[in-house]
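Example with several molecule types.
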Amino acid sequence: MPTLHFNEHASPAMAELDDGTKVYRTCSAGIGCHNLGCGLKVFVKDGKLVKVEGDEENPISKGRLCVRCLTAKEYYYHEDRILHPMKRAREDRGKDAWERISWDEALDTIIDRYRETVDAYGIGAVSVWCGTGREASQIHFQMANDVFGTVNAVHPNSGWSCIVPRMAAMLWTMGSSYIEADNSIGFPDRYDDPRWVCPNYMLVWGRDPLRSNPDGLFGHSIVEMMKLGMKLIVADPRVNWLATRAEVHLQLRPGTDGALALGLLNVVIEEDLYDHGFVDAWCYGFEQLAERVKEYPVDKVAAITEVDAEDIRAAARCIAQSPSTLSMGLAVDQNPNTLQIGHALLSLFAITGSMDVPGGCFMGIPPIFAGMAENAPTEEGEGEPEGLALYGNIGVEPLGHDRYPAMSAIVNTTHPDATLDVLETNVPYKIRFAYVFGHNAISCMVPQPKRWLEAMRKIDFVAVADLFMTPTIMGVADIVLPAATFFEKEGYVSNNNASQPGQMGAIIPVLEPRGECRADLEIMLELHRRLYPNSAKPGWASPADFIDSQLGKMRDVDASYEDLCEHVIGQYEIEYKKYEKGLLRADGTPGFNTPTGRIELYSTVLQNLGDDPLPYYIEPKFSAVSRPDLAAEYPLTVTTGGRRFTSFHSENRQIETLREIHPWPTVQIHPDTAADYGISEGSWVYVENHLGKVKMRAHLTPIVKGGVVNCDHGWWLPEADPENLYDVFQVNVNQLIPHEENGPLGFGTHYKSMPCKIYRADES
Amino acid sequence: MTQYGLLIDNEYCTGCHSCEVACKNERSLPHGQWGIKVLELGPWKLQDNKHWEYRYIPVPTSSCDLCEDRVAAGEKPSCVHHCLASAMEYGTLESLAAKMAEKGKMASIFIP
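Resulting structure tokens for the full complex:
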């Protein structure tokens, strides 16, 4: 069973130096990152932050830090941080006309407007929004339900194109809450633990983990495993650093991932490279899959994907050498073909015997996802009804689930694209109230951000909690609340809420809050107190109390927040081959948590949801193949979402040291393509298509394919005019991305495969 | 007198810039100045049309004193401490040269 380890010999959580400087150990959680929990030593003298260094005793980060934590002092003391609650008249949205107010006035206003909305229009008119990855997203869905009583939690990423489609493929076809490359993250001795085996190969698919540290994975653990002998296969339209170190780099045409994955399966099955014993014992539908992949012979796949046929064969032969592992990234989600890509790739590792074995693909256990398994109505007999129960909202589906019923089987938010339609049309009802956690929608995430800006401006009342002023707050908010950094609050870090092995650590308040900033969790508890003064619900009295209740829901985590604070960081270990031991299914029997109890190469769940039970390929809808008419005017392809060390999506843009390293929104162009258009290094260019245009600086590099340009995402210019929304519409590439072009079940969209043209800005 | 330097593993340096910023913090350097700077070699495709020349090369500048104070206190230089790829090592030139020979490829030693 799972086990939580603390290092009993580690240094104390705080040590005092001779000069009176206090050195606190803690874990990070964005400033600019996923909830990875890298170890920090925070040097504090006379209440002032002196410096931040990496904590060598953190078993995962081992003293190392990326530039975002290394500039945390600049972030904490930045003059642009929001330090006090502020308000602005609704007619002044878009104007820099803020007035400082007290916390009491801010919270009273939020509650008054909330109650007025509910009384006059019903609870459906209330929405609660959140961005991606940071700590607040852990509590987003639950707070929408438990504090605001609404099912309309909003995460407006077209087609929910981040993690959820991959999780749907993992859960529905493999029966696991989350599947990640095994990097021995749960064992105290890490790679020295005799139970762990170094993977022969890692297939890195549409992911740049060194920069993105995705969803609990410390990216540079891949480098650690390379040093131990692991080899790489990389599938990516760009030659990223990992690709230059790979045995085979599959430089596919953007968006053709589905065909490539099916081609790899074709080779493994045709060449009889699969694990017959595992397939016979544990898989369902192999014959049907084998039949399906015959439709994707290597030469056909090579023609679709522009990848050399021999490279596809070579890659498949490597991957088949079990144990090998898979690190699949956001490119899988950001494609309407997403479920099929995920299903095909996971099937590839399943039939080659690499699922849930040491050095293979680690299968997570429930709970499903941060916040997702919560949605807890007040239990009967626990006092007055609260949240969903108070409003009779239990079992009510969020907006858009009628259009995309599959959503209900994986996530309890509104359907992102359907949400825009509701805002624009007021059908089935008008959304009138929005509370937003740390979410800069207009700069990042939403496609067609001008449409979203106008739609959000129709909401009668918008309150936003954030650390810095953003184009989104400037554009739409009426109240802004100052949020706290991890230096100033209580919290915890875990790897996917302990459904995967790994870090279990404390975020410890080590500095006084600047100004009047407060943690998102603290704000929620305060709103809960004011809305439900007679509440006797356990776990809501204080942040520590709430964290204790969250920890209590995790399987076999016998620790309180106080324990985490004492030890700062622990590790949570989970066994291999859980399917043999009855550890994956609720009924405790061996097998996988799917309807057939087997890995479903032929998915009965997808079949029941109305999709093809076998993986298939969808040509990107706006490619030159699909739309030769568009290609005539827009002959190039634009991909977006590539990550930089210097930012987390739209965050960190005002940090001078980071802007010194990467100063401007940048488009990567192949030198040959640049020459065709007379574009030179460093010049400003427009990237334009039928939906919009964006201005970026050209960087000429052969790491992109000829004919493909890669644009930075999440840009705005904090130094620009607030009333021009920090020039966000000059630099936000999502203007080139379409609204609601999702896959059949409502997932994925074309963030990485749109047509475009480029031209020098001085010629426009 | 024993000389010290930095051994860089250019096979695994990923160009993350952590050394640059860790050093800036340590030396309190103003904008536009660096105690160590990551240079980029390549990328270009080799003549086999498969492999790439692409490596990062952090080079200490004249502002680098190999973190004399930290080392005196028993710590590693800040760049070495924070390097995400663990691709930097501090030591005597003798010991670093031995390690470089053992590595056998894609490595460099710098004296600031």
